[in-house]
Design a protein that fits this description.
This protein is α+β, with helices and mostly antiparallel strands. It has a single domain, classed as Sandwich (Jelly Rolls). It contains four helices and eleven strands, in the order E-H-H-E-E-E-E-E-E-E-E-E-H-H-E. Strand 3 and strand 4 form a beta hairpin. Its main location: endoplasmic reticulum. This is Isomerase. It is found in: Endoplasmic reticulum membrane.
Length: 199
């Protein structure tokens, strides 16, 4: 099965962005520009819109960069920190590449009573299919999140907390608008021009 985004490239982009200032937006801006350089026509280098996201109790801001039926790429973070449940996905692997801050996590079902190694700037971790974690995202933490698999299976977890628990309809509406923009961009693009990698 072929995919358009390579986790190795995402890790390189992350490591190249670490250390850039966060307060003036340079860290996020340069990360997106670098992704657009690696994936011309796939990632739009122009600033997108931040959207509120709450899933599994984890509240933060998300910027959508790319999605298709088998892949998605976003930037997610929280200026003040947050914690909660990772979710359990049976049909998708979710990679996190930390740009700034720190993420602590633990396996919710293992016999271990100690946390997993912390995710630090420049680091990479993967929540494999069928697994679940508890996590703490420290203040000022921002990461690239890349999902590979059946993307539609993540939507109930991603939307139910925001819509039914928080009753935050506006965030769902804004997310739908951003998804729509990416979908139109994807369908306008000549797919034969985008690079592909084999898993």
């Amino acid at each position: 099965m072929t995919y358009r985004i390579d986790p190795v490239v995402l890790h390189q982009v992350t490591k190249g962005a670490v250390g850039r200032p966060l307060y003036n937006g340079e860290l996020i801006t340069r990360t997106i520009e670098s992704l657009a350089e690696h994936y011309p026509g796939l990632i739009d280098p122009t600033p997108g819109r931040w959207v509120a996201s709450k899933a599994g109790g984890v509240l933060g801001k998300v910027r959508f960069l790319y999605f298709s039926p088998r892949e998605y790429l976003v930037i997610f973070g929280s200026p003040t920190g947050t914690q909660g449940f990772s979710g359990r996905y049976k049909h998708i692997d979710i990679h996190k590449f930390l740009l700034a801050g720190r993420i602590d996590s633990y396996d919710v079902e293992s016999d271990a009573t100690t946390p997993l190694p912390p995710l630090l700037p420049g680091g990479h971790t993967c929540l494999e299919r069928g697994h679940a974690r508890g996590l703490t995202i420290h203040p000022g933490s921002w990461h690239l999140e890349y999902g590979r698999g059946a993307v539609a299976t993540t939507l109930p977890f991603a939307m139910v907390d925001t819509l039914l628990v928080s009753l935050e309809i506006e965030s769902v509406r804004r997310s739908a608008v951003e998804f729509g923009k990416l979908a139109r961009r994807r369908f306008r693009r000549d797919e034969s021009d985008a690079p592909k990698w084999v898993r």
